[in-house]
Amino acid sequence: MSSKQDEIQSIQELLKKELELQENPDQKQEELATVRAKLNILRKDPILTGISPLYKDYEPERWWFEIPKFVSTLILCGVATLVPAEGASQVFIALVTSTAMLVLYANYQPYVSTNDDVLAQVCQFSLTFTISVGLLHMASESFQVTVYRLLGIAVVHFKL
């Protein structure tokens, strides 16, 4: 019975939003059309209400965007750490995945709200920047180890 109540509640929320958008002429017509499209979909197939958390934040034509988002999260949190490679290679895999998601967010702008699109891009850029700084830090550590080894060899060899 709770799924029926959730369905009714989401339809009520969409109806309220539709009324608000109709009363405010300065609101975007795109947003009003999106709300109406969601209402029509929910009225035709109530099963979609149950899976609506997967697609409700996205524009109707970008319903599939949860798939690359999930795959990216899976790679960043699991696969990159399980790859039998050294640390820098794992960080590079994470960097490539994060950059690919940044490009997807920038090109497709999947969210209904423009503010959400901007926020997603800024967050993904922040994550990509953080990973790249981590990779640079790992590179600088390996460089320092090489320099210190050469310096140690020179000290021992020339007895400075």
Provide the descriptors you would attach to this structure in a database record.
160 residues, mainly alpha, 6 helices, 79% helix
Molecular structure report:
The chain has 160 residues and is mainly α. The chain has 2 domains: 2-56, no CATH class; 85-158. It is 79% helix and 0% strand. α1 runs antiparallel to α2 and α4 (66-82) runs antiparallel to α5 (87-108). The longest helix has 45 residues, at 114-158. It starts with a helix and ends with a helix. The mean pLDDT is 78.
Give the helix proportion (percent range). over 70%
Largest sheet: none
**What are the low-pLDDT stretches, counting only 5+ consecutive residues below 50?**
none
- Strand fraction: under 5%
Rg of Cα set: 25 Å
Q: Would you tell me the overall average pLDDT?
A: 78
How many domains would you count in the coordinates? 2
**What distance separates the N and C termini?**
83 Å
Shape: elongated
Q: How many H/I helical runs?
A: 6
Give the structural class.
mainly alpha
Describe the structure in brief.
With 160 residues, this protein is mainly alpha-helical.
